[in-house]
Specification:
- Strand 1 (53-58) and strand 2 (64-68) form a beta hairpin.
- 35% of the residues lie in helices and 20% in strands.
- It has helices at residues 13-28, 34-45, 81-92, 109-117, 119-139, 201-221, 234-246, 260-270, 309-317, 339-349, 355-362, and strands at residues 53-58, 64-68, 100-106, 146-157, 163-177, 190-192, 251-254, 281-285, 288-295, 301-308, 328-332, 380-385.
Length: 410
């Protein structure tokens, strides 16, 4: 039996853009980057006639299906399935038959505010500091004495769409024996973490804080930060920075995953997530948007939040990443330069339990060929639909008909 296709949400972020995008640009357009404006245009036209599409005709029963093209923007709630599937297929080949741990590094609110005006240098610094922290603490012979494999994913949002930069890390529960500088030994051993325990979070927090703030001082000394007027003077910046050394920075480790298959399921949820999915939208009425969110300060209770459409779009667009910014990165055993050699060595040392790795690879099934919804045939004839000329990027030229499917291969 074929699995049922999930119904399209009755309300989408694209609907808010099409109905209120012009007014939003009039109010905030001068503050937006070219990448944010491009995201507005592409999300508004995604899977509409504005991008063109195709008509497919079943060669057995004659049933016709109309499908419009996807925008393929990485911030679009509708366009992540194909890129996520391709990425997961490649990532599965990197998995080792060991326990994996989930670690989260979060910037304090004061620094998050600074990151809004300096997204590229501070997001880079956040990811680099988190990776260096994991490498240094894991390499310490008093902790583990090993080079671990690290995958980091940047998220910039909280459930209410406020700016909340943090990094999710998926880390191997062990690694190749190394010296204190993290260099793998000539004849390494595989060193495993204690069952159910990764590295002490208090140590991770302090090292992370020290590395981030030291590098932040360096960026300031080089004049690479855009600062509010109150921090222009060097003494003012130092006075602002000093209390951050005494503050506890939030780093926490969740319980370890059971194995590679659970890691893949986790990655499928987190790696290609956008700030807000269409399924969380509840209604758009009288210029106001209501959506669901989890209140982590109140036992993760699900609540409703209503914002003006313009404020909703402002919050959503602050999570559009700068052009070319890489939000998923690999470090340690998984770093690009030596990944294949390190993984081959690790698998040889872990040979007795490699059956788990093959189970992880089997968890990803190849995509099924599209079938006719009337007769189930895979034989079809395809004809292209050219996009029309549209005068405004936010004028709806016809959303995709109900029951049709998106063309993620465009």
């Amino acid at each position: 039996m074929r699995e049922a296709v999930a119904a399209r949400p009755p309300l989408e972020v694209a609907d808010v853009i099409r109905s209120h995008g012009t007014a939003f640009l009039q109010k905030y357009g001068s503050h937006l980057t070219a990448t944010q404006k491009k995201a507005l245009r592409e999300l508004a036209s995604c899977r509409t006639a504005a991008l063109g599409g195709h008509v497919e005709r079943c060669l057995d029963c004659g049933h016709e299906r109309l499908a419009y093209n996807s925008c393929r923007n990485r911030h679009c709630p509708k366009c992540q399935a194909l890129s996520r599937a391709r990425w997961l297929e490649r990532e599965a080949s990197y998995l080792l038959p060991v326990a994996y741990h989930h670690v989260v590094f979060t910037l304090p609110a004061e620094v998050a505010e600074l990151a809004s005006a300096n997204p590229v240098p501070l997001y880079n610094l956040l990811m680099q500091s988190a990776a260096q922290t994991l490498r240094v603490v894991a390499a310490n012979p008093k902790r583990l004495g090993a080079q671990v494999g690290v995958l980091l994913v940047l998220h910039t949002w909280g459930q209410n769409l406020h700016h909340h930069p943090h990094v999710h890390g998926v880390v191997t529960g062990g690694g190749l024996s190394c010296n204190e500088r993290g260099q793998v030994q000539a004849a390494p051993r595989w060193l495993s973490c204690r069952p159910g325990f990764f590295l002490p979070v208090r140590v991770l927090s302090r090292v992370f804080r020290g590395k981030f703030l030291a590098a932040l001082r360096g960026l300031h000394a080089q004049g690479k930060l855009k600062l509010p007027r109150r921090l222009h003077e060097a003494t003012a910046f130092t006075a602002w920075l000093s209390p951050l050394y005494a503050k506890d920075w939030v780093v926490y480790a969740k319980p370890p995953f059971g194995g590679p298959e659970q890691v893949l399921k986790y990655l499928a949820r987190y790696t290609h997530r956008v700030a807000l999915s269409n399924h969380r939208l509840v209604k758009l009425e009288h210029g106001r948007v209501t959506f669901r969110y989890k209140d982590y300060a109140d036992e993760r209770k699900e609540k409703l939040l209503t914002l003006s459409a313009e404020e909703f779009l402002r919050r959503f667009l602050q999570h559009v990443l700068p052009k070319g910014f890489t939000k998923i990165r690999h470090y340690g055993l998984l770093s690009n330069r030596q990944r294949q050699a390190r993984l081959r060595l690790a698998r040889r040392l872990l040979l007795p339990i490699t059956a788990l790795a093959s189970a992880a690879l089997a968890a990803i099934e190849p995509a099924e060929l599209p079938r006719c919804p009337q007769c189930g045939s895979v034989r079809r004839l395809r004809g292209e639909l050219l996009p029309p000329v549209v005068s405004s990027p936010f004028v709806s030229v016809g959303p995709e008909p109900p029951g049709s499917e998106a063309d993620d291969t465009s």
